[in-house]
Fold this protein.
Amino acid sequence: MTDQPLVIFTPSGKRGHVAPGTKVLDAARSLGADLDSVCGRRGVCSKCQIAPSFGTHAKHGITVAEDALTPINAVEERYDRVRGLKPGRRLGCQAEILADVVIDVPPESQVHKQVVRKRAEARDITVDPAVRLHYVEVAEPTMDAPSGDCERLLDALKAEMGIETLGMDFALLPGLQKVLRKGGWKVTAAIHLDGAPEVIALWPGYHEGVFGLAVDIGSTTIAGHLTDLASGEVVASSGIMNPQIRYGEDVMSRVSHAMMNAGGAAELTAAVREGLNGLVGALVEEAGIDKGQILDAAFVMNPVMHHLFLGLDPYELGQAPFALATGSAQRLPARTLGLDIAPGTRAYVLPLIAGHVGADAAAVALSEQPHKSDDLVLVVDVGTNAEILLGDRTGVLACSSPTGPAFEGAQISSGQRAAPGAIERVEIDPVTKEPRFRVIGSELWSDDPGFADAIAGTGLTGICGSGIIEVVAEMRMAGIVDAKGLIGSAEETGSARCVAEGRTQSYVLWEGDETTPRITVTNNDVRAIQMAKAALYAGARLLMDKRGVDRVDRVVLAGAFGAHISPKHAMVLGMIPDVPLAKVSSAGNAAGTGARIALLNLGARAEIERVVGEIDKIETAIEPRFQEHFVAATAMPNAADPFDGLRAVVPLPEPSFGKSGESGRRRRRS
């Protein structure tokens, strides 16, 4: 036990105990959390802004009191008065830690900005958007025909479009008459056609250029693509960390926060909406357009994110039978979601598949079209909560699997989010057991000339998700870790890089230097990856059972993380079923692609709503064989499935270290 407060920094996950009265900035630096500051603690640069999170944090096992930090001091009051602090923000160079606390470091306060790898994938999409522009001349009012300006505008548009019914968004009425007169009774109207046709924007005279947003709200990151609705071109892409991460890295932690704290759900809703508005601001700045030109938006997300984004209580999603408040596609004004865009902007939220299989999985289905495949395809969207689809023309099955945040670099001793300086690629010589690696921000390997100079600006900061996948798989192929997940000793492996840590061993990936501490892969790290990949494989195997097959024809890795992991390393770990490596492909950010398709093609919305209704949903939490598959899948690659195809092309040594694969058990005495 210790009387020193526990401080947990998000999104980095860095944690530790500090002496009472320690400034947040000093705590961040001592624990390796990424918090900027350039003014020498004078409280004038604001780069060290932080956001403490109060209430019960079930994920971390602590309750944060309102007085966990010292009260706002005179320096902070002066800064707030002169330049302004966002509600809930503090200056890390001034606030002192008095009790256990969870502290979020917002993106603008991070030295090494998070790399959100959800780019817009190249894809041919038939452009048939829900928003159309129409230029019309409107009859002027006269004493003989004193009808309202709105009615005469609608009559002109109905005649132009050849339709009988057309509505007007009430939000346009206050400015309608000024627009008509400014344009000399000639205006351009934006008509939204998803549902009953309605005018949602007006410009005086002739106007071109309307845009839409395609947004993937993930548990860890939020990615948005600003798209020209006429051409389908992506004009700007950007991403941020999901601000909700300070309440827990996985969705169930956030459900717990909503359940255990009065107003907790509203906090989470406000956080994600604030983050989205910041993302929109970054997108329009990059594209050089006005927010008023964004008139349509399509959103995809998992069920918990869906409920919190829409302002729905996620309580029932935290317990069987995991009932949704609603799973239908939603069509609603963006302003009701707290989005600061144009008054008439419309939002389309794709339908959910089941209580744990969300609109993001529906978007993957829209993008990858398993229901149109001639061969049996397994589509795996790898993330904190993995969505899995299995199917062909005869039918599609779907489930989700709680992999947790280990694949994102969390719960790993030297783990971190993807950011410059993080190790992302690893190779280990099977003979010498010596490693080499690459870090984000440099194309050089660690044994290449000039590597040290190339990373001088970022340093070497830790291991991100793709790096931890590769290093554990490479350790397995090099005989450093056995199939059960136990790291061998230096004597057993023949490598001095295997060092004792308590009752287990660790593998030294980087010896460290004067600027970077030693980076190791511990047995607990291996165990975390085993648990995550076992959940993923068990979900896929369960769908195969339901389909009555032992093999699939091909595997598609979807998601930003899926795009950056090597199929060979994924299969060595046993993350995915045994198929020829040539039959494993990456779809990149398939959920984001599905959102773009729904944004740009009106018919695609009807299609995915029909397809979702035909998908068979499997709930892993109540399937008795899930646990059986999970246990077998903790071995690398698997204790029950032989992986003969993989073994034919990849050497897998079969050492056996210690008494068992349990990382915490005592090793056999000699």
